[in-house]
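in:
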């Protein structure tokens, strides 16, 4: 016990540590104040106390915001570990009753997964836990994993092939379908490979890339297609397909759920494209969090209900 700095420990509290992590994440006191429901002067006062306790500026003012010092970056994993332990202790001490809980959770996924699962998940949460609010964010797989790691979201949904320190639940295994406007001459039946590569294609890519998984598979056959457009999201792509002669190769689950609504024909692709898994992830640090475990369970329930509806049609 002699090595413990009891004086400085007494000067710290959990709110200060949470503020420190929030400043690291956002780099702006105004954003932190809005997120935590505080005044900007209160955040500045907390930062002054943190600087005094740790004997370091921690953040330097720059034109773009607050830049963490080397000491702040060194402290980050240690502070996160402390918050994790305290959070686990609180969860265990208070228990978790969804019907009476008050909290905010954030979910990140690409627009297709939010379209498939988001509305049903929101409806389920309103029934089971009306005091829990939820924010949905459109995030690609890498952005979603980074947001999960940085505590910006509580759960991620998508196709994640990367290894990640997360607890995951399989929602569905999916494949691909070719879609285009209902009266597209190419889609009166399933297109042949020659017809397929001769068509003008649209690809869904948040970065605007004109090359994707289909092109890699076509190369195995010594073929290539002509991609003339890229859209950042699936549903905007479906809207574009309904008004053009373009075709697209998209996840079968999305084509099945929204093809008819956008007036699209849905056909089998002329090549075999590998299947992929859609998973829901929470960070492993939240393994003992009843809230996060409950949230993960709700997504799994929604996915099972969606799969049951699909089999019944």
């Amino acid at each position: 016990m002699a090595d413990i700095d009891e004086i400085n420990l007494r000067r710290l509290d959990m709110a200060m540590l949470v503020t420190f992590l929030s400043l690291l994440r956002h780099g702006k006191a105004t954003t932190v104040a809005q997120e935590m429901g505080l005044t900007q002067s209160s955040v500045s006062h907390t930062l002054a106390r943190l600087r005094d306790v740790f004997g370091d500026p921690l953040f330097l003012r720059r034109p773009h915001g607050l830049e963490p010092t080397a000491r702040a970056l060194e402290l980050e994993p240690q502070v996160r570990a402390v918050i994790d332990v305290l959070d686990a202790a609180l969860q265990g001490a208070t228990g978790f009753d969804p019907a009476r809980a008050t909290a905010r959770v954030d979910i990140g996924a690409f627009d297709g997964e939010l379209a498939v699962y988001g509305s049903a998940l929101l409806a389920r949460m309103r029934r089971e836990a009306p005091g829990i609010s939820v924010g949905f964010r459109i995030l690609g797989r890498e952005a979603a994993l980074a947001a999960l790691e940085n505590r910006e979201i509580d759960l991620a949904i998508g196709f994640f092939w990367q290894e990640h320190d997360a607890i995951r639940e399989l929602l569905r295994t999916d494949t691909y379908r070719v879609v285009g406007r209902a009266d597209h001459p190419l889609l009166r039946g399933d297109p042949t490979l020659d017809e397929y590569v001769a068509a003008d294609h649209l690809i869904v890519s948040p970065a605007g890339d004109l090359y994707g998984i289909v092109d890699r598979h076509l190369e195995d056959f010594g073929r290539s297609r002509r991609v003339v457009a890229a859209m950042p999201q699936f549903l905007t792509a479906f809207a574009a397909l309904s008004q053009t002669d373009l075709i697209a190769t998209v996840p079968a689950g999305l084509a099945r759920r929204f093809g008819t609504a956008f007036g699209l024909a849905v056909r089998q692709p002329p090549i075999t494209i590998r299947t992929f898994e859609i998973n829901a992830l929470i960070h492993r640090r939240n393994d003992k969090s009843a809230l996060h475990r409950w949230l993960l369970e709700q997504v799994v329930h929604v996915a099972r209900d969606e799969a049951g509806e699909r089999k019944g049609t």
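note: The chain is about 45% helix and 20% strand.
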